[in-house]
Design goal:
Domain SCP: 38-186
Distance between the termini: 9 Å
Number of domains: 1
Strand content: 5-15%
Number of strands: 10
Radius of gyration: 22 Å
Helix content: 25-40%
CATH class: Alpha Beta
Keywords: Signal
Structural class: alpha+beta
CATH superfamily: CAP
Organism: Ancylostoma ceylanicum
Number of helices: 7
Oligomer: single chain
Shape: globular
Signal peptide: 1-21
Biased composition (Low complexity): 232-304
Length: 357
């Protein structure tokens, strides 16, 4: 009787923690219910990925001319307070919104007749569209915004003065809305979006905010931590910058995600959350990755690849809308959910065994 009990305790100690742990949780510590941490990470990923790609000569206009690199371009952080503002904008799948003098706003409404993928995951779909607006346009002379409405959202995303973002989405069956709110106002006519220059390679080259560090792999500056202010109970945001570190995951070429908000994310898992002065919290994903419960199935690489960066689109090379990072995460999450029932059975058996003892 004694040995079986020891064996049972061993099984519980080794297996049960894995069943109870949610390896996909990334504690941004936001209280909003409109989106989860998976979607938050996707939103932050798109913004920082775009900034990194510009500084690594990976973004081109319609003439295949690479956008000039930027000096003092900073990684963005995620703000829960700004997410709350975005949630108000999309509430009830609103089809319009009121502009704000304090905050820049990217907004999209998908009405009846929209693509089912857009209705299922409006935020990730429109983030991909916004980040690709430049491919049909000429780049702006001297990096100055010229009131081109077809480049408005793209310009908000790369505005060097902006350092924080919060997003939300709402799905209402035949319609959906998505919005991202920034800690700086909308870009204005003739505003310089960023200063052309050499991306940082060392900390003292990051001068917009001091102290700052340089994340060389991302080609972006990172604001140093500051003592956070207590969270605002009202959730009201301010136009000041949010002093905390951005996501530490190295961005890659973006892709759309055709899933519900709880399904797919970039593969980085785990984060450190800090309160922002504006009442939100931000997350800094760690560099560790979550192994998939089962191996992914890939198809042979063909000679034709629809993605501008074939190295991240080997699984389904003819589809440029999603990259391999997001495909693998989607498969990983499906396999994980299949493992959960086994954990439930184990918990029940442990309870029965303990009661018998």
């Amino acid at each position: 009787m004694f040995l079986p009990n020891i064996a049972l305790i061993f099984v519980v100690a080794i297996v049960l923690p894995g069943c109870l742990a949610d390896s996909y949780a990334k504690p941004f510590n936001c209280t909003g219910q409109t989106i989860n941490d998976d979607v938050r990470e996707i939103a932050l990923y798109y913004h920082n990925s775009l900034r990194t790609r510009i500084n690594q000569d990976q973004v081109e206009d319609k003439n295949k001319t690479k956008l000039p690199k930027a000096e003092n371009m900073y990684k963005m952080i995620y703000s829960c307070a700004l997410e709350e503002e975005a949630a108000k904008l999309v509430d009830g799948c609103a089809d319009t919104y009121n502009k704000s003098q304090a905050h820049g706003i990217n907004f999209k409404y998908f009405g009846p007749g929209s693509n089912p993928t857009q209705l299922a995951s409006p935020l990730s779909q429109i983030l991909h569209t916004w980040s690709e607006q430049i491919v049909t346009k000429d780049w702006l002379p001297n990096n100055k915004y010229n009131n081109d409405k077809d480049l408005f959202e793209f310009s908000n995303m790369i505005n060097a003065k902006t350092t924080a973002v919060g997003c939300s989405e709402a799905m209402c069956g035949t319609k959906a809305s998505a919005a991202c709110v920034f800690n700086e106002p909308d870009v204005a006519n003739d505003q310089v979006l960023y200063v052309t220059g050499t991306p940082c390679t060392k900390d003292d080259e990051c001068k917009t905010y001091t102290p700052s560090t340089c994340e060389v792999n991302a080609s972006l500056c990172v604001k140093a931590d500051a003592t956070p202010a207590p969270p605002s109970s009202s959730g009201t945001t301010t136009s000041g910058s949010v002093a905390t570190t951005p996501s530490s995951s190295t961005p890659t070429t973006s892709g759309s995600v055709a899933t519900t908000p709880s399904s797919s994310t970039p593969t980085t898992s785990g984060s450190v959350a800090t309160n922002s002065p504006s009442g939100g919290t931000t997350a800094q994903p760690t560099s560790s990755t979550t192994p998939a419960p089962s191996s992914t199935t890939t198809t042979p690489v063909t000679t034709t690849n629809a993605h501008k960066d074939p190295s991240i689109n080997r699984i389904c090379p003819t589809n440029s809308g999603v990259n391999d990072k997001i495909r693998n995460k989607t498969l990983e999450m499906h396999n994980w959910r299949r493992f959960v029932p086994l954990c439930t059975v184990l918990i029940i058996l442990v309870g029965i065994a303990c009661a018998a003892v």
